[in-house]
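Sanity check. The docking grid for tryptophan depends on where the pocket ends up, so I'm generating a full predicted complex first rather than guessing from homology. Inputs follow.
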Amino acid sequence: MTQRRMLTGDTPTGQLHLGHWVGSVRRRVELQSQAECFVLIANMHAFTTRSEKPDEIRRDTLQIVRDYLAMGLDPEKTAIFLQTEVPAISELTYLFAMLLPYNRVMRNPTLKDEIKVKNLGDNYSFGFPLYAVGQTADILAFRAHAVPVGEDQIPHIELTREVARRFNQLYCGVDPKTEDADHAAAGGVFPIPEADVGKVARLPGTDGVNKMSKSLGNAIFLTDELKQIKKKLGKLYTGRQSPDEPGDIENALFQYVRTFISDADRVAELERRYAAGDDIGDGHIKIEVAQAIDALIAPMRERRAAWDDRDDDLIDILREGSRRANALAEETLAMAKEAAGLGFWKRSLSLD
Ligand code: TRP
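Predicted complex below; grid placement will be based on this.
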């Protein structure tokens, strides 16, 4: 039995926020001592909607590395790498694109959603839907077993599972009736990967309505100080009028309470008093939540600041991570080419 391997990643769109932490990064930090871990920065995917802004993408790429290190990813344990420096990913993308019906890709609800939210209409590039195929290659190039992600990424993982099954059936003689868990044992190149969704898959933003997202302006960042956190939470709308009014403990504020206040007795007490309207104001709870968030991110803020103005060191980390990523991805590509009748000779690329 090979060791469990996990792969996940983020598109560089700016600083990471608390939504990333609870949805995915927290889980990665937990996993890094239990599995072989790869974290990819999807800087090529960033070009799908921002190809005219390469400087921003480069800056955001390095910001993500800072956030990862601040949140506790350890580059000794986790290979943090650049999508654009692993050529096997692009090669597999092309091959996998042949295994997926065009209409199947376009039916992906996450793609459809993005087209709507970003107002792309039908003016998106050819590369935009291709990124969904690319994401299957990101994962399969590492023959990953687990993919820690937020809920919105599940359709991409489902597509990845379909590609893996199809490849194993077409080119490795795996019987279509084989259980997902048995694909590798049955001779398939690719294990069928599973999404590993964090405990709080969807953290509401500080507007109390939408998912936390930088572009919606409702995010709390690692660089926010207590004062800013309080101010942001102050805007969270609950609709409740007074401390004596029974409140809904399923609202966004209480999702924050349960996510960030670690004392279970205190959480239970707040829930009980809120539900009963027992003299507990939203403002009071918000301050308690803000303090809990601050206690969580203050050490992250400090670690992050230590990487300011050190782009070269960050690039060294990416370089070492990409070196490790390439060693594995090249091996996978060779296996896949062999299976698909493309293994004419053994090539060696020097990737350093
Ligand atoms: N699509 C993901 C996002 O925008 C980023 C991503 C790219 C990814 N490749 C991946 C996530 C592979 C998990 C696995 O957040």
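Relevant for the grid: The first strand starts at residue 5 and ends at 10.
Also worth noting: The chain has a mean pLDDT of 94.
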